[in-house]
Prior knowledge:
Chain A: Transcriptional regulator that acts as a repressor of the gibberellin (GA) signaling pathway. Probably acts by participating in large multiprotein complexes that repress transcription of GA-inducible genes. Chain A: Keywords: Gibberellin signaling pathway, Nucleus, Transcription, Transcription regulation, Ubl conjugation. Chain A: One of its GO terms (cellular component) is nucleus. Chain A: InterPro entries: DELLA_N_sf, TF_DELLA_N, TF_GRAS. The complex is a heterodimer. Chain A is an alpha/beta fold. Helix content of chain A is 42%, strand content 12%. Chain A is built from 16 helices and 9 strands. In chain A, strands 1, 2, 3, 4, 5, 6, 7, 8 and 9 form a 9-stranded mixed β-sheet that branches. In chain A, α10 links the parallel β1 and β2. In chain A, α5 runs antiparallel to α6 and α6 packs antiparallel against α7. The radius of gyration of chain A is 25 Å and the shape is globular. By secondary structure, chain B is an alpha/beta fold. In chain B, β3, α4 and β4 form a beta-alpha-beta unit. Chain B is globular. The model of chain B has no long low-confidence stretch (mean pLDDT 93). Classes of the chains: A alpha/beta, B alpha/beta. The interface between A and B is large, with 82 and 74 residues.
Amino acid sequence: MGPYNSSVSAGSSSxxxxxxxxxxxxxxxxxxxxxxxRVRSSELRQVAQRLARLENVxxxxxxxxxxxxxxxxxxxxxxxxxxxxxxxxELHQPExxxxxxxxxxxxxxxxxxxxxxxxxxxxxxxxxxAGTEIEEDSGIRLxxxxxxxxxxxxxxxxxxxxxxxxxxxxxxxxxxxERGIGKVAGYFIDALSRRVFAPPSPPSLxxxxxxxxxxxxxxxxxxxxxxxxxxxxxxxxxxxxxGHDCVHVIDFNLMHGLQWPALIQALALRPxxxxxxxxxGIGPPSPDGHDSLREIGLRLAELARSVNVRFAFRGVAxxxxxxxxxxxxxxxxxxxxxxxxIMQLHKLLGSDPSRGSPxxxxxxxxxxxxxxxxMVVEQEANHNQPEFLDRFTEALHYxxxxxxxxxxxxxPLEKSLAEIHIQREICNVxxxxxxxxxxxxxxxxxxxxxLGGAGFTSxxxxxxxxKQASMLLTLFSAEGYCVEENEGCLTLGWHSRPLIAASAxxxxxxxxxxxxxxxxxxxxx
Amino acid sequence: MAGSNEVNANEAKKVVPLNTWILISNFKLSxxxxxxxxxxxxxxxxxxxxxKVPANTIPVDGVYSFDVVDRATxxxxxxxxxxxxNEAQWGIEELEKPLSTTEIVPVIIFFHGGSFTHSSANxxxxxxxxxxxxxxxxxxxxxxxxxxxxxxxxxxxxxDGCAALKFVHSRSWLRSGKDSKVHVYLAxxxxxxxxxxxxxxxxxxxxxxxxxxxLLHPMFGGQERRESENRLDGKYFVxxxxxxxxxxxxxxxxxxxxxxxxxxxxxxxLSLVGLNFPKTxxxxxxxxxxxxxxxxxxxxxxxxxxxxKLLFLKQATIGFYFLxxxxxxxxxxxxxxxxxxxxx
Lengths: 525, 344
């Protein structure tokens, strides 16, 4: 067998969401990367040997195979080397020294990856709703004019944009505004017109914090995104708290505290008994002297008491996360801390990557708390791009997919309220600029880089969390939701488009040099 | 026996590049874990382990992709197209104009493999393969996310294949050529090849046009044990035992492998004589234990008077086309390219 040459370009990763492992001097095999596996070229032989070893063990012990499938927890299958090693250690196989003679002489061309892999933006496409042919044509025209309008806004041609908006409103009448492209387009046309016709100050969809939580609650009910976030976070937090008696959860956005009853109950039931649980809930200050944070805290305390969990609550009122100072959290050195951030961190991002953003000092004080776990759940979208047109296009696809997933929800009033919740996000992405634009969603890979650079290391969510999240989804009638594993993180999406990503992090010990990517493999070669 | 297993592993290592060996061995081992002796399948763990990628409207290697859900069936199809040069148009898919009004652009409906049980249209290996196929053959590829066994047995995959064919034929934006129609080919590897055959039969029976079939080591079988099955059992990643498991998972309960879905020219099959069946390109890997069934299929098509070309790749194993690091991959692509452009 001679060496094989390939005329296909090396390392085309076709959308693989991995970033380059380590320095360019230790590249990963580009072809395996295209298949979703990250293996260093220098380690191909060792990985092959370990695979062969695993196979031998499996062949000789078939009952062990069922243990591997049913009981063992699997992590991050992209990292083939550690996956194989973890299975070998599940089967209690000691490390063997690499034996060069095991491999016959093979020539191959290793297609290596030089430099980072481009993270291609995930833009899935919705086909226009299959209505009548006339409706299809109107729908096509609608999208066409919508994009043209966005382009004119992008170029600052506001009078052109204004006339296009009028045309769009006319076109809307010839499509079904209750579903499909008609509905989504309606919201985007509304957002564009607020931007074009409103005065320079940010268009205010300002509603009270109360209305905010009502809309949030309906969004929570109508689709599984928030439930997935809470569920997955609670799982990971529960595991992080295992074996500890004094635990403290810091919730970056308490709302109605919907996430916490399940955790309290799970802690009540844990073997060995519940810990002392402290919950610090951060939320906006309530108007008119009313202390809503405290009210929610009281309700949670009552629940905790009813299941015999020692519980203490503290509310921290702050309009923005960067107004929170660590001393307000009153952290106790003996307690184990979990930081819970469900769709909050993106609000601290700025749009100019060269200037520091408000998130940097916040990440720093989080790290200094030395939390056992930081749960981060974020919208899986690229809505913080500097160019308006890119943001608009991305948002159109993202929210179309989200509205699509909502279509199956049956209760019409609740669905409308959930949609208004989403509409406000859309408006913020489309209409607002500067400080007013808080919905600065960034995709998982950017969060990985950011958190890695800020001194956090990834805690992988495993097959047990995946399985439970999948089970949660079966409770929803709409088929089309899917959970995916993405290099230790879990995403929930609709029909192959991930919409929300959950990841877990831990502060690296302060003394260590922060590295961009941490390799957790235990074995030494 | 441990000894013979090691011998087998070494056999396979000699004929494929190292990274290919790792890829396919990884599948082999994880699939072993997922199949349960009682015939059930650990779908949760399978989905967890499966490497998936999103569609990409930003072109990679000149090809971009997007997902479309067929509202009639809730089936996902991933479409791969050649990118336009104008960067400003990336990210927007109008689904309005035909592919071309002058030239013929073949549309290949692709059914991914996985023995009816594994993989999806958005599996990384298949996404990458379809992207390469679209780019090299200058075709549009539609990858179908058909329902899998054991949750969905025969004939679900064929129903989904037919639905996809209907979907593709009815898209105005997939039309091309001066005759303004969709120029459809069916293709698939392993179980996907089996699906392509059966969809082509149904299409021929109901007068739906299919210009050609491309079957990449298609999954066929029968009750009888063939010589290649005995000779190659366990030697190149595949065992007869695992093949049996997948047939039991796909075929109706209680059926055997002479069921017409599996044994195409066997005792229970219907004749294809006189049917307006498309021309076929059949690719057989010389180290695939199922090859005797595939060669019998080719012979059967010839006997029934249908046009078939056999591409026999003597030293190829299953899955040789996942990575473009071998000559078989390039031979395959050349053959497919000329197969879908031969009418232009």
